[in-house]
Amino acid sequence: MKAIPRTGWISHGVSLQDVESVADHSFSTCALSLLVADLEVQSGKHVNVERVLRLALLHDLSESLTFDISKEYLEYLGPSGEAVKAELEHAAWKHITDGLKEPKLRRSYSRLQREFDAGQTLESKIVRAADRLDILLQVIQYRRKGYPAPLLADLWNGTNKKLRSSGIPSARKIQKILIQEGRRPWAGKIK
Fold first, then answer.
1. Three-class SS string for the chain?
2. Which CATH number describes the domain made up of 7-187?
3. pLDDT tens-digit map of 81-127
């Protein structure tokens, strides 16, 4: 995963040398997941923080076999693109878990994958929100490196829209901070 680039950035004009790896993204998502989970616990919610971390650590593991399939690439497949991606990632997960010799561990990891995909538990929602917060952080980082705002505006806007409906108050607070950072003079117009 350290050598697999996040292809969505490439299709947005970020040079390969500047593109983060799937491992970079996964680590940042884990750190953000921990922060959001802890903030939610502090606000009185019951969150299984260990489960959040397990989901975050494994959320993109299938990409170690499928590579990162960006939304731009899916457009070439038409309306079935998302379904094809889901099928590929599911097959990769099955291959990974089938390789585990311990049946209990195999079942546990498979359940985590299904939980993340379904996105219904508080823990999976936290990880999904953290995944999106990481995209905003990465947009800010690329803007600081000098990439023009128009190249990244659709990712910025689409991600902000998804986060608004996340239902995770702590993620929304972090989002507001990132939006303010994105409005700084160096950022151009990525509102």
1. CCCCECHHHHHCCCCCCCCCEHHHHHHHHHHHHHHHHHHHHHCCCCCCHHHHHHHHHHCCCCHHHHCCCCHHHHHHHHHHHHHHHHHHHHHHHHHHHHCCCCHHHHHHHHHHHHHHHHCCCHHHHHHHHHHHHHHHHHHHHHHHCCCCHHHHHHHHHHHHHHHHCCCCHHHHHHHHHHHHHHCCHHHCCCC
2. 1.10.3210.10
3. 888 888 888 888 888 888 989 999 999 999 999 999 999 999 999 99
